[in-house]
Amino acid sequence: AKNETVMATTRGTLVSVERMADNSFAMVLQNDAFVTIYRHVARALKTQGTAVEAGEAIGVADGEKEIGVELWEAGKFVNPEEVIVW
């Protein structure tokens, strides 16, 4: 939904916050076990290098593009629906 908050799924550090060609942001959150990538974030609320807690607001959705979430462990894709409690 428009202006819906994008929240960190785990505690970690935002190792990358980059504006993409479509003017949205891709945000990469690293913790000890996982790397989580959030795509199509309309507005980033945190900057690269920021430590965040699980459930903390990191961005805002625009309501037009669906937020994409990828979860990786040791270089392998993990289905987020099997790990994250939404």
What is the tally of beta strands?
9
Q: Fraction of residues in helices?
A: under 10%
Percentage of residues in strands: over 45%
Structural class: mainly beta
Biggest beta sheet summary: 6 strands, antiparallel
Side by side, the strands of the main sheet go 6-2-3-4-8-9
Q: Radius of gyration over alpha carbons?
A: 12 Å
Write the element-wise H/E pattern from the N-terminal end onward.
EEEEEEEEE
Average pLDDT confidence is 92
Q: Judging from the principal axes of the Cα atoms, what is the shape?
A: globular
Characterize the structure shown.
The protein has 86 residues and is mainly beta. It contains no helices and nine strands. The chain has strands at residues 5-7, 12-19, 25-30, 35-41, 43-44, 51-52, 57-60, 68-73, 76-78. The strands form two sheets. A six-stranded antiparallel beta sheet has the order 6-2-3-4-8-9, with no helix packed on it. Strands 1-7-5 form a three-stranded antiparallel beta sheet, with no helix packed on it. The radius of gyration is 12 Å and the shape is globular. The relative contact order is 0.29.
Which features would summarize this protein structure in a list?
3-stranded antiparallel β-sheet; single chain; 86 residues; 6-stranded antiparallel β-sheet; mainly beta
